[in-house]
């Protein structure tokens, strides 16, 4: 992009001798030019975006919002589906559950809060979530969504929190906000494929363990399991800069990092293996895991994984397959993809019910099916007698 010497920028920021000040300047320069490739490289480099000050500039750009400095955005932003004061909008169906989860928020961070400060932050968190849901009523709340929103509330300034979370919801974690967890579970099926391709011995050891152990981590962008604001903010840097499927590779890297511990547990004890895998390792070496996830992604891209064929074309994994795509999509795009996925889910539900019904009545169905085939054959032979003679000739030669 004109005015930005990208090779020098990346050389500066990835050099071991680069200071935090140099890197902060590079981040702000990339935000100024909305250089998503440079931001991705900076997010993946050690330390990510370093401070909340730079995150307040970078995260909105990665999500397709203005960078927070008042400049006019150069790409389509998209808008929430409802305008006007959100408190005057109809109540969302999931607000009771929102309040239950908000009551359990802010357990680990921020630290040293008094009761009044904690109550204020819970009110702000509830308002943030409810505003996003009321403005986008088609979205379905899921338990753990408040963990994600809590991070955005603590990092971003108030004016851009709701727009940022709305775009995140519709364009990056949309699969989790559908009326069914089916699409989220299908994402997890990619993890065994990554392990089989990269570490066959470990894959075989875990072959009796379903990948549901990764649900809480991937569903909440790891915000449910990481207990320090610095670590989860740093991980959000790379998750927002990369394509949504990168989160799955991140969990595969976490699994591989625990090889020795997992091999110490017998393969025929899936419950014990599940118990180990559903908790993140301590301490958590985020820089090493991010590097390992990037290497896994490069060596085994999703298109090579068998489970990729089961991922809906309207899934965020496909509609935002490449980094930076989310920043160019609109909220209307997100809603359109959402509706396509809902239609697919309804069709799959009807198909499964039909298959179940056929299985329950398989003997009568078999009899009816044979009768129908005989009737159709008789009608064909009556209309085309030559077909019967032709078949008879083939059978006769085969019998001889």
TrEMBL record:
Record region (Disordered): 1-22
GO BP field: endoplasmic reticulum to Golgi vesicle-mediated transport
Gene3D superfamilies: 1.10.8.1310, Ypt/Rab-GAP domain of gyp1p, domain 3
Keyword S-adenosyl-L-methionine: no
Keywords attached to this entry: GTPase activation
Record domain Rab-GAP TBC: where: 49-243
GO CC annotation terms, alphabetical: endoplasmic reticulum membrane
Name of protein: Rab-GTPase-TBC domain-containing protein
């Amino acid at each position: 992009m004109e005015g930005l010497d990208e090779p020098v920028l990346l050389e500066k920021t990835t050099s071991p001798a680069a200071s935090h000040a140099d890197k902060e300047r590079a981040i702000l320069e990339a935000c100024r030019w909305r250089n998503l490739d440079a931001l991705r490289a900076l997010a993946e480099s050690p330390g990510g975006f370093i401070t909340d000050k730079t995150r307040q500039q970078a995260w909105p750009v990665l999500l397709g919002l203005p960078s927070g400095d008042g400049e006019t955005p150069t790409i389509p932003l998209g808008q929430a589906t409802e305008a006007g004061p959100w408190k005057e909008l109809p109540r969302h169906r999931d607000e009771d559950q929102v309040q239950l989860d908000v009551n359990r928020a802010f357990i680990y961070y921020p630290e040293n809060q008094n009761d009044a400060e904690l109550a204020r932050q819970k009110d702000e968190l509830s308002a943030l979530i409810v505003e996003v849901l009321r403005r986008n009523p088609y979205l379905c709340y899921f338990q753990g969504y408040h963990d994600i929103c809590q991070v955005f509330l603590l990092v971003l300034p108030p004016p851009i929190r709701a727009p940022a979370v709305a775009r995140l919801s519709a364009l990056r974690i949309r699969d989790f906000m559908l009326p069914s967890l089916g699409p989220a579970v299908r994402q997890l099926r990619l993890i065994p494929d990554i392990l089989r391709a990269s570490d066959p011995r470990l894959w075989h050891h875990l072959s009796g363990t379903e990948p549901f152990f990764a649900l809480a981590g991937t569903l909440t962008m790891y915000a449910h399991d990481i207990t320090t604001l610095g670590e989860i903010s740093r991980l959000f840097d790379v998750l927002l800069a990369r394509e949504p499927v990168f989160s799955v590779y991140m969990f595969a890297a976490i699994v591989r990092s625990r090889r020795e511990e997992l091999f110490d547990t017998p393969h025929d004890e899936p419950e014990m293996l599940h118990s180990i895998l559903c908790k993140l390792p301590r301490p958590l070496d985020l820089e090493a895991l991010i590097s390992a996830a990037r290497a896994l992604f490069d060596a085994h891209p999703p298109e090579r994984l068998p489970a990729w064929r089961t991922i809906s074309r309207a899934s965020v994994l496909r509609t935002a397959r490449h980094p930076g795509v989310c920043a160019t999509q609109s909220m209307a795009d997100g809603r359109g993809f959402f509706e396509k996925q809902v239609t697919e889910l309804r069709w799959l539900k009807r198909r499964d019910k039909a298959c179940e019904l056929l299985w329950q009545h398989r003997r009568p169905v078999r009899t009816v099916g044979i009768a129908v085939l005989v009737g159709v054959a008789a009608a064909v032979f009556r209309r085309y007698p030559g077909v019967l003679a032709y078949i008879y000739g083939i059978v006769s030669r085969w019998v001889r």
